[in-house]
Design a protein that fits this description.
Elements: E1 9-18, E2 23-32, E3 35-40, E4 53-56, E5 61-64, E6 66-71, H1 84-94, E7 96-101, H2 112-125, E8 129-132, H3 148-154, E9 159-160, H4 169-181, E10 185-188, E11 200-201, H5 204-209, E12 213-214, H6 217-233, E13 236-239, H7 245-256, E14 261-266, H8 267-271, H9 293-305, E15 310-312, H10 320-323, H11 340-349, H12 355-362, H13 364-370, E16 385-395, E17 414-424, E18 427-431
Parallel strand pairs: 1-4, 1-5, 6-7, 7-8, 9-10, 10-13, 11-12, 13-14, 14-15
Antiparallel strand pairs: 1-2, 2-3, 5-16, 16-17, 17-18
Helix pairs in contact: 2-3, 4-6, 6-7, 11-12
Length: about 425
Amino acid sequence: MATDPLAPTLFVNARLIDPATGVESQGGLLVSNGRIADLGPGLRPDAAPEGARVVDCRGDVLAPGLIDMQAFVGEPGAEHRETIASATLSAAVGGVTTLVSTSAAFPAVDDPAVVDFVLRRARDTGKVRVLPMAALTKGREGKEIAEIGLLQQAGAVAFFDGAHSIRNALVMRRAMSYARDFGALVVHFTQDPDLAGGVMNEGEFALRLGLSGIPREAEAVVLDRDLRLVALTGARYHAAILTSTLSLESLSAAKAAGLPVTAGVTINHLTLNESDIGDYRTFLKLRPPLRHEEERKALVAALAEGLIDVIVSDHDPQDVETKRLPFAEAEFGAIGVETMLAAGMRLVHSGDVSLPRLLAAMSSRPAEILGLEQGRLQKGAPADLIRFDPDEPFVVDPDLLHSRCRNTPFDGALLQGVVKTTMVAGRIVHEIAP
C-alpha cells in the first residue's frame, strides 16, 4: 500500500539547526498537516503518532528549506533554457524549497496575467514553491513604472528589472515612491550599463587575457545613487548582487544610518574569483563579473558579520549555442540552484562562516525580507525542511544535474553537502534512499 504523502512524519536522531535563532541541538521533529507540530530532544521513535512515518536522520542536519531569492525559471518564453518543472526539480535536489523567480521572462512579468500564469504553472508542474518577482518598469525598459499595486495583488513578492539597471534617477525615484506606498520591496541590479561594457573584472588579469574589463565603480556609482534615493523616499530596497568593497562601504554606511536596505551576493562570488576563469572558461562569465580574490574575501567577511543579508544562486541557464563561443562573445550566466548549498559548505569547512549563519543567509533572512512564514525551525512554522549531510563529498557532474542546461561553474569540482531529503509543506519532494 502506498504511503499517504500527508501522513505525519517524525524525524529522529537529527542535528536540528534553526537559523532564525542560531540555536543548534540534537533531537527530533514531528511534521503534521504540513507544519512543524513539535521538536526537541525528547522526540524519539516511540513518540511517533499512529500511522506516522519515522525517518532516522543518523546525525544529519535538519534545517529549514532554502529560499533562493533570485532564479531564472524559463517560463514564459524561454522553455528551451529552463522550465518551472526542471528548475524546481533542480531546486528540490539542492535543498531549495522556495524559488523566487526573476521578471526576465518573454514577455516580461509586468502584467498581472503573467504573474498569474507563473503561479498556476508552478502549482501544476512545480516540485517546490515558486514566488514571482514582477518587473519594476514596463517591459523592464527603465522608462515607465509598472503597475506595482496590481502586480502585488496578483502575487508578486518583489519588483525587479533583472539585469536591466535603471539609468534614469527620476524614474528610479518615482518607482521607489510608488513602491513605498504599497509597502513593496524594490530589488535592483546595481551596474551602470555605460561603464559596464566589458566582459570580466577590470584589472591585470583581464589585460593578460586581452579582454575588456568592468570596473568596480560600475556597481558602486549606481548603488550610491540608489541609497541616496532610499534616504529621500523611505522605500524598502534590496541590492540584488554586490561584489566589491566599494559597495560594502556604502552599504555599511546606509545600514548605520538606519535606512531600510538589504543586499545579496551570489554563491559564485563567495566561492570563486577571476582567476578561476583560467583559459577563457565561459561558464564563469558572469554578470556582475567575478572579482579579485581580495574582493571575494571581503564578501565572505561581510556575510559572516551580517552586513550581507542573503545568498542567491542567480540561477541563469544558458544553452550550448550561447556558451560554446569565444569568451567575449559568450552569454553571461551560470546555473546554480542545485549546487548552492554544497558550494556554500566550502565556506563552512574553511572556517570562514558558521553553518547557522550560512543557512540563515539562505533561509531565515530571505524569509524576513520577503515577509514569508518559512525559514525557521519552530512549532507552527511551515514544514519546508531539508535533511543533509554537511560532510558527504561528491563530484559535480553536469550530466547528472537536473537543469535543462549544463553551464555550471563547478564542473568537475569536489563539493561536500549531500541533500538526502527535501520536504515542502509536509510533502517529501526529494529523497535519497538509505
